[in-house]
Amino acid sequence: MKRYEELAEEVAAMISTQLLLPGDKLPSVRQQHARRGVSPSTVFQAYYLLEARGMIVSRPRSGYYVAPQRAALAPEPDSSRPLDASTTVDVSDLVFEVLGAVGARDIVPFGSAFPSPHLFPMERLARAVSASMRRLDPWSTVTDLSLGNAELRRQIALRYQLDGVLVSSDDIVITNGALEALNLCLQAVTRPGDTVLIESPSFYACLQALERLELKAVEIATSPRDGVDLAALEELLLRHQPKACWLMTNFQNPLGSLMSPEKKRALVELLARHGVPLIEDDVYGELYFGKQRPGLTKSHDSAGLVMHCSSFSKTLAPGFRLGWAVAGRYARQVERLKLTTSLSAPIPLQMALADYLAAGGYDRHLRQLRLTLAAQQNTMLQAIAVHFPPGTRVTRPQGGYFVWVEMPAGIDALALHRSALAAGISIAPGPIFSATRAFRHCIRLNYGHPWSAQLEEAIATLGRLALAAA
Questions:
Q1: Which residues does 235 contact at the CB level (< 8 Å), separation at least 6?
Q2: Which of 281, 284, 339, 459 gets the most CB atoms within 10 Å of its CB?
Q3: Are 231 and 112 in contact (CB under 8 A)?
């Protein structure tokens, strides 16, 4: 174990043996540094780890304390059971109506699709942008079009290699966020009227993409723990002859499900037997709470059918809107589509991120971000257990920053959304995640914002509103 892990285990043992009791104050970082001879960063890392486990809590300008007695968490929801039917998608109006107020600063952002911007290294990124502008080669604004900046693509390829996947930088297309990458991949393999298999529930931007391209959706039964049901998927492949399958195998939005390595391999092999490309949205894969990054489906892709898409928007630089696609056998089609739509992502921002990655700051940032998100998830789950109505079920993702809340069947999530918004709280109601507007008693909540008394009170308010609607 690393030194901070050893220190964390020592404190954890003191808590489990009741040498430290709920509410007790832990030795300060300065005290641990002086008495134990460890660096302040080691103490902080140990305390962040314990906070992520829900064993201690931080109090601003006061220090760290043993967490109060934990409430029993709500049970997890069961797998979805969608209708076996091809559906014409019509959700955009509802999505825009729901998300219209999410970005307002005075609204509690439980309905947001992004974590707090305060969790990102904005000052370092600003310096990187300034440096990249000073040394910008004017010709790069021409040569880096289409595929994107060569150094950024090389840095991304190196990260694939660390995850056990050999990818040529020439097969990486830089895009304006992952959403453009996903849309380009979808356009490359479908035509209007085609059918696409998706999860149930599914990210609303996926549904909007299908609607815009006049594609039909077939929803697959999906578990909040380990993703789509492969037996159900195989039946749908035979029955509907889809042109593509759009999935999130790592910390799916909105459920937070994570496919096991064995299931990912079986998924890729199943789709390869049917010749169906997998469009994979993997924007949350780096936000894992375990020891290592979940494996990539791309590592099992010998047929070139996996179109892997990701971005830095959820992990490092939301406002940069820089993503990429590794589209296998469809790479050239995606590159051409990029050229004929938006041409290029901003060159100076690409250069800045390439420099940031090369300097090694990204992994240090990610380690802290993961610990912070894990701690915030623990706090939100406890708050839901205390404040939400009996019969509520909640997912417990192993990464990302969303929980899926299934409330008693009599509660209308859209009505709850409206009453919550009137109280200054945004939520994402279940119907926006379904082509058939199902999940009417479910909501998605974002725990990617630093916990505060305001957020605690907002959860209590949501619980009261839900209880009144039950």
A1: 84
A2: 281
A3: no
